[in-house]
Amino acid sequence: MPVTRHIHTTSRVAIANIIVTVALLAASALASATIAHPVPAALLLAFAAISELISVPLSKGRLSGCFGAVLVIAWMSGPLAGAIAAILVTLIDAVKHRSDLARAAVNTTGLALAATAAGAMSTIAVKNGVGLDDGWFAVVCFGSYLVAICLEFWWVYSFDLGDGVDRLTKMTREVLLPLMPQFACMACVTAAVPLLYAQLGALALLLVFIVLLSFQSLVRELLISRRRAERLDESVREIAEREAAFEKLSFGALRALVQSINLRDRMTARHSGAVAKYAREIARELGCSEQDLELVHMAGLLHDVGKLIFDDAILTGTQRLTDEQFEIVKRHPGVGAELVRGMPGYEQVSDIIRHHHERIDGRGYPDGLAGDDIPLLSRCISVADTYDVMTARDSYRKPVPRAEAIAELRRVSGAQLDGTVVEAFVDVLARTDLSFDHASSTDFARQLEMQPSRTRAAA
Ligand SMILES: [Fe+2]
Ligand SMILES: [Fe+2]
């Protein structure tokens, strides 16, 4: 709808509603200009205003006692008082919600129409000799409450829709009718108020309003804190989802890093796959958690990533390394650790990589850590690393048989390697046919496919 046409339409709606409201006021004044029971009417108006100010939006409608209070004013003090009360409380609502003129006018007319109808019905009852303390008056109030709620609903929704009676029928069926049992309960409670006033006076009415407003205020606070908690839950969930997505991205980047080692030096890449596989089984044998298994697997895949800084003479050469070259080689755990540390959530993987060439006797590198100061998962990598270097069929060195490799692991236990970790690996090898095929890409690809569920450290 073009903007100018929309403005014209809303202006017409506002003017039409204002005219109807004025007509309702005039008709009510002509019928009876007097306002009976002014004290309870004033109390009820104050209650309606406060209730409207502290009203809380609910999934269907909102929690406010203003509709009931306006109707009681209409029942007890006549349609004119009801219409005036309706105008005042809907003005409060319009100011509170900064409603536009058309919306405010429709709401005002809807409530004024409901109040005038309710007031007219009770006036007829009074003129027929039914007093406030008469049970029949409560029956009339009950019936007029339901009539009033329907009138207000239809009036407000007929201006809300703009696309015909079919939609209004649908809204009646899907919104109004399902709420009728609740409205009937509200009608019962509200219809008892004139009776209460007739029996106990204005003070009792005041006490009831105080209780109702306190209850409304309590419910309001409860709802507000529940919504805050829901919003907080939502934020926590969003953060967790973002972290998971980021970790997935990080894992993809790290996997690409391993692939790049593969392109540069296939032997080192497959060695990394083998170390990841062995180290994971060693850690499992030692009773490590699933998270630790994932950490050590990732660290195994990346433990030699720092070798990317080597030139080809060091990386793939077969000559004995010079002292200078060996100093460069000793930098690879630190370089690899720094490379991985840049990935948020992979700090522990970085630490494991940094210490995979430490020795249990403290003579390793880069930090010369000894014994339990070396992270357990780094010790697992060391054992897996040493074993794979000895047994790999793809190695430039002649591979040694499994039994000889185990004997060598035991020989260096307590000096280079952690004896407990070595024995755990020996147990795994004795019990299983754990091996890694360096000659084909299948085993390597399988290690790369093992995406961690959550490599990020729990700490
Ligand atoms: Fe290494
Ligand atoms: Fe290695």
Beta-strand content bin:
under 5%
Task: Give the overall silhouette.
Answer: rod-shaped
Radius of gyration: 41 Å
Poorly predicted regions are: 1-5, 454-459
**CATH fold type of the largest domain:** Hypothetical protein af1432
Bound molecules: fe (ii) ion
- Proper CATH architecture of the largest domain: Orthogonal Bundle
**What value does the average pLDDT take?**
84
- First CA to last CA: what distance? 57 Å
* Number of structural domains: 2
Helix fraction bin:
over 70%
CATH class of the largest domain: Mainly Alpha
- Helix-and-strand structural type: mainly alpha
Strand order of the largest sheet: 1-2
CATH superfamily of the largest domain, please?
Answer: Hypothetical protein af1432
Structure report:
The protein has 459 residues and is mostly helical. It folds into 2 domains: 198 residues, Arp2/3 complex 21 kDa subunit ARPC3 (Orthogonal Bundle), CATH 1.10.1760; 203 residues, Orthogonal Bundle (Hypothetical protein af1432), CATH 1.10.3210.10. Helices cover 73% and strands 1% of the residues. The chain is built from 18 helices and 2 strands. The protein has a two-stranded antiparallel sheet. Helix 1 runs antiparallel to helix 4 and helix 2 runs antiparallel to helix 3. The longest helix has 63 residues. It is rod-shaped. The two termini are 57 Å apart. Bound molecules: fe (ii) ion (2 copies). The site of one fe (ii) ion (FE2) has 5 residues, from helix 9. One fe (ii) ion binds next to helix 9.
